[in-house]
Structures are given as C-alpha cells and as structure tokens.
Amino acid sequence: MTMPLPDRFYVGVTDTKWFRFLRDERLLDEVNFWSPGGRKIIAERGMPFLFKLKSPENAIGGGAFFSFVERMPIRDAWEFFGRENGAATLEDLRLRIQANRKAPTSVDDEIGCFVLSQPFFFSSPVAQPEDWSGSIQGGKYYHLTESVAQRVWRDVSIALAADQPQVAASPFGGYGTPVWQPTRLGQGAFRKLVLDAYGRRCAVSGEHTVPVLQASHIKPFADVEQHEITNGLALRSDIHTLFDLGYVTVTPEYRFKVSDRLREDFDNGEVYNEYAQQRPTIFLPGDRELMPNREHLEWHLATKFKD
Q1: CB within 8 A of 22, min separation 6: which ones?
Q2: Element (H, E) at 31
Q3: Whether residue 203 is found in the same domain as residue 111
Q4: How far apart are the first and last CA of the chain?
Q5: Dmax of the chain from CA atoms?
C-alpha cells in the first residue's frame, strides 16, 4: 500500500494511557485526541496526525487523519465519542483529564477535541524526527520539503504497509484491504455534526434531550459509503427506527409523512400523525448548505416508505 503524499503533517505528543487503550480497541473509525487545556491547532481536513510516544519509547506509535477540532465539555466528548476518547467510562476520562490538569475537573469543563479519522497503530514504532526537542509540549508541524519530514513519512508508509491487516480498509467503515481516503467522517463525528446542524433537536419532534437524539442516514450508509451531513437527519431514537423501517419519511419538500401501515400493523401511532400535522416542514438546519439532500429524500420516499 502506498500512503498519499501530504504537503505537511503534525506530530503530537501523545498520552501513553490514551494510546495503549486505543491500540487495544478493535475496529475504530475515529478517535478523539483531547487536550486537557483546550488548546487548538490549525489543520486542514485530511492532514496526517502522528502519535509521538513519550519516554521511554520516544518514537511514533501510529497516527490518524485530521477531521475537525472543537472545544466541548467533557460530558459531550463522552456522549459523542465514548471509548474513542481513550477511556473506559466518563469518570475514567474525567480523572485522566484532571490528572493532566493537576486541578479539580468537572464533566462540564471544556477540553480541546482533535477528532481524527481512520486511526492506525504500528506493531513496531517508527523513529521520532531527528530534530525533536524535549522542550516541545504539544506537537510540531513538518513539511515534506524538509529532509527530516521525508524520512519520517517514508518510514511511516513502510510501517503502515507492513501492518495492513490492522488498518481500516475503507474510509467509510469495513475492514480488509486498505484503501486510503482520509477525509471521511467517523460515526461519532457524523452524529455530532448532524445534531449541531439541527440545533441539537429532533427535526420532527423538536426534542432537545441529546442522549435520545441520533443521526439518521437518509440513504443507507452502505449505499453512499460516506458520512455526509446532507445525508443525515437529527431524529429522536423512536422516529429514527420508524424512518429506517419505512413507516415514516420526510418528503423532498421537507414535510414529515406517516404511512397508513403504521396504524394497520400496530393499531397505534397517533403521536406521529400529530407531528405530521403540527408543522408545514420539519425543523431544518440554519445553514442552507447543510439542508437534507432532496434526491436522497426522493429515494427514501420512493424506495423505503410503505405506501
């Protein structure tokens, strides 16, 4: 496998416990590389982000591809990324951050979240950059015009090729022969960005309780093979289930529609008909570029909806 040649990459100093926890996880499509102090880095989507292990390793143990960065409460980081934060529970995550901060920490405190897609972990670490200094606290950018960067990237490519069975094959999920498309969103990032687009409320009911809100794919993930925000709807879990089963749909005019089959099959469903009658359209994103794809909605109406 040949790694794509980036213009630059970032080498980030990595918490050892975070790294070891995630290295032992299976089938990860993304990770949250958190910063306890909330710092940010400037990075374009798809830029490689390499994990620089601390002493005694002093080597690069793996990496991923930059998706997006955002400050968010610890509670939200756990809600959207769970164990992909490199911790087994919300309390474990809070304690880990508190230990790094060396100060009392609440789950409502904000952290910096570097959401990275398609993570990989080497069976044999790669030598760190020759010019690396122990005074570097966060990380450092490397440009491929530099000889040090060229050596690191060559070695990373070789190590990754040797570990192909451990690497996600598709940028959209699934495992097998590696195919690199590092700009895709993972499931947690997809859910967060879709919910944010809809103001963290159900597009149909207006429900604001985040734990019961889900990001529904209009066309199945297996068909489009990527997490596009315009292929997503923020739906309460019960409405999401009915949407996937075809008992409800959203028309290309953004109207919520309920199939007569819902009453016929279950002798129930009045609440969903009330939602259909309450508003002329569903709640929609404020950003028009994030509006649900009309062609996908037409597909759902024609293909999945039970007439």
Answers
A1: 28, 31, 84, 86, 119, 121
A2: strand 30-35
A3: no
A4: 48
A5: 71
Can you give the pTM of this predicted structure?
0.85
The CATH number covering residue 51 comes to 2.30.130.30
pLDDT (tens digit per residue) in 22-81: 999 988 999 999 999 866 667 788 899 999 999 999 999 999 999 999 999 999 999 999
Does the pLDDT of residue 157 top 80, yes or no?
yes
Q: How many CB atoms lie within 10 A of CB 115?
A: 26
158 & 250 share domain: no
Walk across the sheet containing 8-14 and list its strands. 30-35, 110-127, 59-73, 48-53, 8-14, 139-143
Q: What is the domain extent for residue 272? A: 187-304
Question: What pLDDT sits at residue 3?
Answer: 53
Domain count, the chain: 2
| Structural tokens at position 306 | 């039970």
Nearest to 68 by CA among 54, 51, 81: 81
Cis check for the bond before 56: say yes or no (omega within 30 of 0): yes
The verdict on residue 176 lying in a domain is no
DSSP β-bridge partners for residue 66: 116
**Containing H/E element for 125?**
strand 110-127
Q: Is the preceding peptide bond at 178 cis, omega within 30 degrees of 0?
A: no
Which among 79, 84, 87 has a CA at the least distance from the CA of 192?
A: 79
Integer CA distances (angstroms), 158 to 1, 284, 292, in order: 9, 46, 41
Tokens of 109: 């405190």
- Across 117-144, b (16+ Cβ under 10 Å) vs e yields bbbbbbeebbebbeebeeeeeebeebee
14 located within any domain = yes
Contact of 15 with 96, CB cutoff 8 Å: yes
Same domain for 108 and 42: yes
Residues 141 and 290 in one domain: no
pLDDT score at 222: 77
Within a domain: 179: no
